[in-house]
Structure formats: C-alpha cells, structure tokens
C-alpha cells in the first residue's frame, strides 16, 4: 500500500497541524485546568465506556456490509470488521492515506473488490453520516433555541437542491470505470437509485446508523455525567454532532484537534465549562479508539479461526 511521497508528506503535515491545534486548545484552556478536568473522571467506569465504545465500529462494519449487499457484493461480517478496523487505524497512522481511501485500498487487496464496487459504498457511508450529523446538530441547536439557519422557504429549496446534486454526484462516481471513462447513463441512474433506496428505503442501514450514533451519544453522556458537566440532552447532541461534522469535513487524520477545538468553542458558546467539555471530548476519543482496538482483536481472532 504505497503512494507518492508528496501525498505522504501532505498527510504527515496535516497530522502535525491537527496535533498543533490540539496543543493550542490545551494551552488556551490552561494545562493545569485541563489536566484537572481530565482527572475528574473515575477510572473505574472506563471498562464500561470502552465496552460501549466497541459498538460504533461494529455498527459501522455491519452497515457497510449491508450497503455492499444491496449492490450485490455480499461479504461476511468478519471481513467487514477487519477492513473497517484496519482502514480506521490507517486513516490515523499511515501518512499515505487521506480522508477515507484506505478502506477502498484494503477492500481491493483483501477482498479483491473493484473500484466501481468500493467507491460508491464508501461515499454512501460518508453521505449517510454527514446527513445524520447535520440533522442532529441542527436539531440540537433548535431545541436549545439557537437556530443555525433561518427557517425560510429558500432554506428548504437549497437543501433539496443539495440532495439532488449529491445523488447525481454519487451516480457519476459510481459510473466511472478504472480508466476514468463513463459506462453510460444506465449505470449512473442505477447507482443513483441505489443511493436513494439505501438512504430512504432500507431499515437495516438506518438501524446500524442509529446504533452507531446512539452508542457515541451514550458514551459522551456517560462521560459528561461522571465529570459533573451540567448539560442537557440537546446540548449533548450538539457537543457530539457539530465537532464530529467539523472533523469529518477537514482533511486532518481522525479530525484530531478540529473536533476538540470546535467542541470547546461550542461549549463556550453554549455557556458550558470549556475545559470540562474539552476533557470529555479527549476521553471520548480515547474510549472509542480503545473500543476499536478491542473489535480489531476479536475480528482478527475470528478471521484466523475460520476454516
């Protein structure tokens, strides 16, 4: 899994930018205050938090498997878990990969899947999550009385236009063959219809998506409660969705620094203790990564045990 050195350098630089941003956030909050906020969490509850943190990657892999199944490319859940865990790790650690192409590379190498099968499925996952995060973030802001966008007829028209554009974009991406040529309008419409059917018509995809983000929210709520952070469910939803959305849209590995900085800014805007909010987000990242590691170990053992 190699790539041009320039891409690796850009990836390493983006990682350094994220780490630098995270360091700046800690410095702005005050190192002593931040460490004190980190230390307020009872360590005895971490095993429970890590166990819950293992749910999102399982739901993530299950959803990807279902999306591939809808496209007549079935794979086993163990294979989906192995690729999901390895791709997430690579997106953090390997300088050659940007955003989420590691999943495409690993699917091609381990599962012998072509680009025209893997690219639409990965794009679908990103679109589903971005849509859910945008809806959650907007709903949370509405519930606490801070509307991000005025609710006017023009707003809904723009939203509808964006949805249509995304559907057509996905169709174009799915219709590109390895040499970059289009296979025709029929394939484009087929992949576009797959997007619509997956987003609106398949309960398993939405169940897996709901399970993933419900587990993320529960972990964040558990950490907030144990840290004594005074925040309601609406504020908790905003604290989860907005930083996650910001981290997903910025090409920095794992959204390091971006999620924490945006979370601290959101907390200050909502009148929440920013130091405690920042500490909770750091603990949340650590817990979910430990849960990912646990899923990786189990899936690796299960893969070796298969005949």
Termini distance?
A: 27 Å
Question: What is the total tally of β strands?
Answer: 0
Rg, Å, rounded:
20 Å
Shape: globular
Question: What is the chain-wise order of helices and strands?
Answer: HHHHHHHHHHHHH
Figure out the total of helices.
13
Q: Can you walk me through this structure?
A:
- The protein has 307 residues and is mostly helical.
- Helices cover 78% and strands 0% of the residues.
- It contains 13 helices and no strands.
- The protein has helices at residues 5-29, 31-39, 46-53, 55-70, 77-93, 101-111, 115-143, 153-174, 185-201, 203-226, 233-249, 258-270, 274-305.
- Helix 1 packs parallel to helix 12 (258-270) and helix 4 (55-70) packs across helix 13.
- The protein is globular and about 50 Å long.
- It starts with a helix and ends with a helix.
- 39% of the residues are buried.
List descriptors.
single chain; 307 residues; mainly alpha; 0% strand; globular; disordered N terminus
Q: Topology of this protein?
A:
Elements (H helix, E strand, L loop, with lengths): L4 H25 L1 H9 L6 H8 L1 H16 L6 H17 L7 H11 L3 H29 L9 H22 L10 H17 L1 H24 L6 H17 L8 H13 L3 H32 L2
Write a brief structural summary.
This protein is mainly alpha-helical. Helices cover 78% and strands 0% of the residues.
């Amino acid at each position: 899994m190699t790539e041009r050195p320039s891409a690796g350098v850009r990836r390493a630089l983006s990682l350094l930018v994220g780490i630098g941003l995270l360091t700046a956030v800690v410095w702005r909050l005050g190192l002593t205050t931040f460490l004190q906020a980190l230390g307020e969490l009872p360590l005895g509850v971490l095993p429970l938090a890590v166990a819950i943190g293992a749910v999102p990657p399982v739901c993530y892999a299950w959803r990807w498997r279902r999306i591939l199944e809808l496209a007549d490319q079935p794979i086993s859940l163990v294979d989906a878990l192995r690729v999901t865990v390895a791709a997430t790790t690579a997106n953090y650690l390997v300088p050659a990969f940007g955003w989420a192409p590691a999943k495409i590379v690993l699917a091609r190498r381990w599962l012998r899947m072509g680009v025209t099968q893997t690219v639409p499925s990965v794009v679908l996952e990103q679109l589903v999550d971005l849509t859910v995060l945008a809806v959650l973030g907007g709903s949370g802001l509405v519930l606490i009385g801070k509307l991000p966008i005025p609710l006017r007829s023009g707003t809904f028209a723009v939203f509808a236009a964006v949805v249509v554009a995304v559907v057509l974009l996905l169709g174009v991406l799915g219709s590109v063959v390895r040499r970059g040529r289009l296979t025709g309008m029929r394939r484009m419409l087929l992949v576009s219809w797959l997007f619509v059917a997956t987003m609106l018509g398949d309960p398993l995809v939405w169940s897996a998506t709901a399970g993933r983000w419900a587990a993320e929210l529960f972990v964040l709520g558990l950490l907030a409660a144990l840290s004594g952070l005074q925040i309601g469910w609406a504020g908790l939803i905003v604290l989860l969705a907005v930083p996650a959305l910001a981290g997903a849209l910025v090409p920095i590995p794992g959204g390091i620094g971006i999620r924490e900085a945006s979370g601290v800014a959101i907390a200050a805007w909502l009148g929440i203790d920013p130091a405690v909010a920042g500490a909770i987000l750091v603990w949340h990242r650590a817990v979910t990564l430990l849960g990912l590691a646990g899923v990786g170990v189990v899936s690796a053992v299960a893969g070796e045990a298969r005949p």
